[in-house]
Design goal:
Elements: E1 3-10, H1 15-21, H2 31-34, H3 38-47, E2 51-56, E3 71-74, E4 78-81, E5 94-95, H4 98-110, E6 116-118, E7 122-123, H5 125-134, E8 144-150, H6 160-175, E9 182-188, H7 205-217, H8 227-234, H9 241-249, E10 255-266, E11 269-278
Parallel strand pairs: 1-9, 2-8, 2-9, 3-6, 4-7
Antiparallel strand pairs: 1-11, 3-8, 4-5, 10-11
Helix pairs in contact: 4-6, 6-9
Length: about 280
Protein backbone atom coordinates (compact mmCIF):
# COMPACT_ATOMS: atom_id res chain seq x y z
CA UNK A 1 0.00 0.00 0.00
CA UNK A 2 1.00 3.64 -0.42
CA UNK A 3 2.77 5.31 2.50
CA UNK A 4 2.38 8.86 3.81
CA UNK A 5 5.93 9.93 4.64
CA UNK A 6 4.91 13.13 6.42
CA UNK A 7 3.12 16.46 6.22
CA UNK A 8 4.41 19.95 5.48
CA UNK A 9 2.50 23.16 6.20
CA UNK A 10 3.72 26.43 4.75
CA UNK A 11 2.72 29.95 3.75
CA UNK A 12 1.84 30.81 0.13
CA UNK A 13 2.12 34.63 0.11
CA UNK A 14 2.19 35.81 -3.55
CA UNK A 15 5.07 38.24 -2.96
CA UNK A 16 7.34 35.25 -2.28
CA UNK A 17 7.31 34.58 -6.01
CA UNK A 18 8.68 38.01 -6.77
CA UNK A 19 11.37 37.59 -4.08
CA UNK A 20 12.47 34.30 -5.66
CA UNK A 21 12.49 35.82 -9.14
CA UNK A 22 14.58 38.79 -7.96
CA UNK A 23 16.97 36.57 -5.94
CA UNK A 24 16.17 38.30 -2.65
CA UNK A 25 16.62 35.20 -0.48
CA UNK A 26 19.49 36.86 1.45
CA UNK A 27 17.91 40.29 1.68
CA UNK A 28 17.45 41.22 5.38
CA UNK A 29 13.67 41.43 4.94
CA UNK A 30 13.42 37.95 3.41
CA UNK A 31 16.31 36.00 4.92
CA UNK A 32 14.57 34.90 8.18
CA UNK A 33 11.77 33.46 6.05
CA UNK A 34 13.89 31.63 3.46
CA UNK A 35 16.29 30.33 6.13
CA UNK A 36 13.49 28.12 7.43
CA UNK A 37 13.41 25.87 4.38
CA UNK A 38 16.80 24.05 4.09
CA UNK A 39 15.97 21.49 6.84
CA UNK A 40 12.72 20.61 5.08
CA UNK A 41 14.51 20.30 1.73
CA UNK A 42 17.07 18.00 3.36
CA UNK A 43 14.24 15.84 4.69
CA UNK A 44 12.61 15.68 1.25
CA UNK A 45 15.93 14.67 -0.26
CA UNK A 46 16.14 11.85 2.30
CA UNK A 47 12.58 10.47 2.11
CA UNK A 48 12.12 11.15 -1.63
CA UNK A 49 8.33 11.29 -1.95
CA UNK A 50 6.88 10.31 -5.31
CA UNK A 51 3.66 12.33 -4.99
CA UNK A 52 2.63 15.56 -3.27
CA UNK A 53 -1.02 15.91 -2.28
CA UNK A 54 -1.47 19.68 -2.23
CA UNK A 55 -4.16 21.04 0.12
CA UNK A 56 -4.73 24.71 -0.73
CA UNK A 57 -7.33 27.32 -1.66
CA UNK A 58 -7.99 28.72 -5.11
CA UNK A 59 -7.85 32.51 -5.62
CA UNK A 60 -10.36 32.95 -8.43
CA UNK A 61 -8.41 31.01 -11.03
CA UNK A 62 -10.78 28.03 -11.26
CA UNK A 63 -13.68 29.07 -9.02
CA UNK A 64 -15.32 32.40 -8.30
CA UNK A 65 -18.06 33.53 -5.92
CA UNK A 66 -20.82 32.37 -8.29
CA UNK A 67 -19.52 28.77 -8.26
CA UNK A 68 -17.51 27.77 -5.18
CA UNK A 69 -17.22 24.09 -4.28
CA UNK A 70 -16.45 23.20 -0.68
CA UNK A 71 -13.98 20.46 -1.66
CA UNK A 72 -12.54 19.99 -5.15
CA UNK A 73 -9.90 17.50 -6.31
CA UNK A 74 -7.91 17.57 -9.51
CA UNK A 75 -8.04 14.52 -11.74
CA UNK A 76 -5.96 15.72 -14.66
CA UNK A 77 -2.74 14.40 -16.21
CA UNK A 78 -1.17 17.86 -15.93
CA UNK A 79 -1.71 21.13 -14.05
CA UNK A 80 -0.63 24.39 -15.65
CA UNK A 81 0.59 27.40 -13.66
CA UNK A 82 -0.88 30.76 -14.71
CA UNK A 83 0.44 34.23 -13.90
CA UNK A 84 -1.95 36.14 -11.65
CA UNK A 85 -0.86 39.70 -12.34
CA UNK A 86 1.75 39.94 -9.56
CA UNK A 87 4.68 39.77 -11.93
CA UNK A 88 5.30 36.17 -10.83
CA UNK A 89 6.87 34.21 -13.69
CA UNK A 90 5.03 31.02 -14.43
CA UNK A 91 6.77 27.77 -13.58
CA UNK A 92 6.82 24.47 -15.48
CA UNK A 93 3.56 22.54 -15.42
CA UNK A 94 2.99 19.88 -12.79
CA UNK A 95 2.43 16.24 -13.65
CA UNK A 96 -0.66 14.73 -12.07
CA UNK A 97 -1.23 11.20 -10.81
CA UNK A 98 -4.56 10.08 -12.21
CA UNK A 99 -4.60 6.76 -10.38
CA UNK A 100 -4.25 8.37 -6.95
CA UNK A 101 -6.64 11.20 -7.84
CA UNK A 102 -9.45 8.83 -8.79
CA UNK A 103 -8.76 6.53 -5.88
CA UNK A 104 -9.00 9.48 -3.48
CA UNK A 105 -12.17 10.79 -5.11
CA UNK A 106 -13.88 7.40 -4.95
CA UNK A 107 -12.73 6.77 -1.39
CA UNK A 108 -13.84 10.22 -0.19
CA UNK A 109 -17.27 9.82 -1.80
CA UNK A 110 -17.58 6.45 -0.07
CA UNK A 111 -16.76 8.33 3.15
CA UNK A 112 -19.74 10.61 2.37
CA UNK A 113 -17.79 13.69 1.32
CA UNK A 114 -19.20 15.48 -1.73
CA UNK A 115 -16.32 16.16 -4.10
CA UNK A 116 -16.12 18.38 -7.18
CA UNK A 117 -13.98 16.45 -9.66
CA UNK A 118 -11.84 18.62 -11.94
CA UNK A 119 -10.48 16.92 -15.05
CA UNK A 120 -9.04 20.26 -16.13
CA UNK A 121 -7.44 22.57 -13.58
CA UNK A 122 -5.04 25.50 -13.54
CA UNK A 123 -3.02 26.19 -10.38
CA UNK A 124 -2.10 29.49 -8.74
CA UNK A 125 0.42 30.74 -6.19
CA UNK A 126 -1.14 28.73 -3.36
CA UNK A 127 -0.02 25.58 -5.19
CA UNK A 128 3.06 26.67 -7.10
CA UNK A 129 5.01 28.75 -4.56
CA UNK A 130 5.17 26.11 -1.80
CA UNK A 131 6.54 23.59 -4.28
CA UNK A 132 9.06 26.13 -5.57
CA UNK A 133 10.14 26.83 -1.98
CA UNK A 134 10.58 23.11 -1.34
CA UNK A 135 12.24 22.28 -4.68
CA UNK A 136 14.07 25.51 -5.63
CA UNK A 137 16.66 24.00 -7.97
CA UNK A 138 14.58 21.68 -10.10
CA UNK A 139 13.65 22.63 -13.65
CA UNK A 140 11.39 19.56 -13.72
CA UNK A 141 9.36 18.76 -10.63
CA UNK A 142 10.51 15.55 -8.90
CA UNK A 143 7.00 14.74 -7.62
CA UNK A 144 3.67 14.04 -9.22
CA UNK A 145 0.80 16.03 -7.74
CA UNK A 146 -2.83 15.82 -6.66
CA UNK A 147 -4.53 19.20 -6.02
CA UNK A 148 -7.07 19.29 -3.18
CA UNK A 149 -8.79 22.67 -3.17
CA UNK A 150 -10.71 23.92 -0.10
CA UNK A 151 -13.19 26.79 0.06
CA UNK A 152 -11.76 29.42 2.40
CA UNK A 153 -13.36 32.33 0.52
CA UNK A 154 -17.14 32.17 0.15
CA UNK A 155 -19.27 31.69 3.26
CA UNK A 156 -20.48 29.31 4.52
CA UNK A 157 -17.07 27.66 4.88
CA UNK A 158 -16.62 24.06 6.01
CA UNK A 159 -16.30 23.84 9.77
CA UNK A 160 -12.93 23.17 11.34
CA UNK A 161 -14.21 19.81 12.54
CA UNK A 162 -15.42 18.95 9.03
CA UNK A 163 -11.97 19.78 7.67
CA UNK A 164 -10.32 17.68 10.36
CA UNK A 165 -12.46 14.69 9.37
CA UNK A 166 -11.79 15.40 5.70
CA UNK A 167 -8.05 15.20 6.35
CA UNK A 168 -8.50 11.90 8.18
CA UNK A 169 -10.44 10.57 5.19
CA UNK A 170 -7.65 11.71 2.84
CA UNK A 171 -5.14 9.84 4.99
CA UNK A 172 -7.24 6.67 4.86
CA UNK A 173 -7.66 7.02 1.12
CA UNK A 174 -3.93 7.38 0.45
CA UNK A 175 -2.97 4.49 2.72
CA UNK A 176 -5.57 2.19 1.13
CA UNK A 177 -4.19 2.81 -2.38
CA UNK A 178 -2.54 -0.29 -3.81
CA UNK A 179 0.79 1.26 -4.74
CA UNK A 180 4.36 1.43 -3.49
CA UNK A 181 4.27 5.23 -3.82
CA UNK A 182 5.54 7.50 -1.08
CA UNK A 183 3.24 10.48 -0.52
CA UNK A 184 3.78 13.81 1.25
CA UNK A 185 0.73 15.90 2.18
CA UNK A 186 1.30 19.66 1.93
CA UNK A 187 -1.07 22.23 3.42
CA UNK A 188 -0.58 25.82 2.26
CA UNK A 189 -1.72 29.27 3.38
CA UNK A 190 -1.86 31.54 6.42
CA UNK A 191 -1.15 32.01 9.09
CA UNK A 192 -2.91 35.06 10.59
CA UNK A 193 -3.48 37.89 8.14
CA UNK A 194 -6.16 40.27 6.92
CA UNK A 195 -5.71 42.08 3.63
CA UNK A 196 -8.63 44.50 3.71
CA UNK A 197 -11.13 46.32 5.89
CA UNK A 198 -10.63 48.01 9.25
CA UNK A 199 -8.31 45.24 10.47
CA UNK A 200 -6.04 45.22 7.42
CA UNK A 201 -2.56 44.18 8.51
CA UNK A 202 -3.88 42.22 11.51
CA UNK A 203 -1.49 39.53 12.84
CA UNK A 204 -2.03 37.42 15.96
CA UNK A 205 1.34 35.92 16.88
CA UNK A 206 0.12 34.44 20.16
CA UNK A 207 -2.68 32.49 18.49
CA UNK A 208 -0.48 31.40 15.56
CA UNK A 209 2.14 29.91 17.86
CA UNK A 210 -0.50 28.22 19.99
CA UNK A 211 -2.09 26.75 16.87
CA UNK A 212 1.27 25.41 15.66
CA UNK A 213 1.98 23.87 19.06
CA UNK A 214 -1.44 22.27 19.38
CA UNK A 215 -1.24 20.75 15.88
CA UNK A 216 1.45 18.54 17.35
CA UNK A 217 0.24 17.95 20.90
CA UNK A 218 -3.56 18.26 20.70
CA UNK A 219 -4.83 18.64 17.12
CA UNK A 220 -8.49 18.44 18.14
CA UNK A 221 -8.03 21.69 20.09
CA UNK A 222 -8.60 23.78 16.96
CA UNK A 223 -11.92 22.03 16.24
CA UNK A 224 -13.42 23.78 19.28
CA UNK A 225 -13.35 27.05 17.33
CA UNK A 226 -16.10 28.12 14.95
CA UNK A 227 -15.21 29.70 11.61
CA UNK A 228 -16.26 33.05 13.07
CA UNK A 229 -13.87 32.44 15.98
CA UNK A 230 -11.05 31.69 13.54
CA UNK A 231 -11.72 34.91 11.61
CA UNK A 232 -11.70 36.87 14.87
CA UNK A 233 -8.44 35.29 16.00
CA UNK A 234 -6.55 35.21 12.68
CA UNK A 235 -8.16 37.70 10.28
CA UNK A 236 -10.33 37.15 7.24
CA UNK A 237 -7.65 35.38 5.24
CA UNK A 238 -6.31 33.57 8.30
CA UNK A 239 -8.99 30.92 7.76
CA UNK A 240 -6.51 29.39 5.32
CA UNK A 241 -5.28 27.51 8.39
CA UNK A 242 -8.04 25.02 7.47
CA UNK A 243 -5.56 23.70 4.90
CA UNK A 244 -3.03 23.12 7.69
CA UNK A 245 -5.66 21.25 9.72
CA UNK A 246 -6.41 18.93 6.81
CA UNK A 247 -2.74 18.17 6.14
CA UNK A 248 -2.14 17.45 9.85
CA UNK A 249 -5.15 15.16 10.25
CA UNK A 250 -4.12 13.14 7.18
CA UNK A 251 -1.39 11.76 9.47
CA UNK A 252 -2.91 9.04 11.58
CA UNK A 253 -2.37 9.25 15.34
CA UNK A 254 0.45 11.04 17.14
CA UNK A 255 3.08 13.04 15.29
CA UNK A 256 6.52 14.43 15.94
CA UNK A 257 7.57 17.91 14.83
CA UNK A 258 10.84 17.66 12.90
CA UNK A 259 11.15 21.37 12.09
CA UNK A 260 9.25 24.64 12.27
CA UNK A 261 9.76 28.31 11.52
CA UNK A 262 7.66 31.40 12.20
CA UNK A 263 8.42 34.89 10.94
CA UNK A 264 6.45 38.14 10.83
CA UNK A 265 5.64 39.95 8.74
CA UNK A 266 5.98 38.87 5.14
CA UNK A 267 3.71 41.11 3.07
CA UNK A 268 1.45 41.75 6.11
CA UNK A 269 1.18 38.01 6.73
CA UNK A 270 2.41 35.73 9.51
CA UNK A 271 4.58 33.20 7.70
CA UNK A 272 4.64 29.72 9.23
CA UNK A 273 6.38 26.47 8.31
CA UNK A 274 6.04 23.02 9.88
CA UNK A 275 7.36 19.54 9.08
CA UNK A 276 5.57 16.64 10.78
CA UNK A 277 5.97 12.86 10.76
CA UNK A 278 3.80 10.17 12.29
CA UNK A 279 5.28 8.57 15.38
Amino acid sequence: MAKIVGAINTTHVPLIGRAIHQHLEHDPYWKPFFDGFPPVRDWLDKVKPDIAVMVYNDHGLNFFLDKMPTFAIGAAPEYVSLDEGWGIPTVPSFKGDLDLSWHMIESLVDDEFDITTCQEMAVDHAFTLPLKLLYPNDSQWPVRTVPVCINTVQFPLPTVNRCYKFGQAIGRAIESWESEARVVVIGTGGLSHQLDGKRAGFINKEFDLMFMERLVTDPLWITRFSIEDIVEQTGTQGVELLNWVIARSALQGDVVKLHSNYHIPISNTAAGLMLLESV
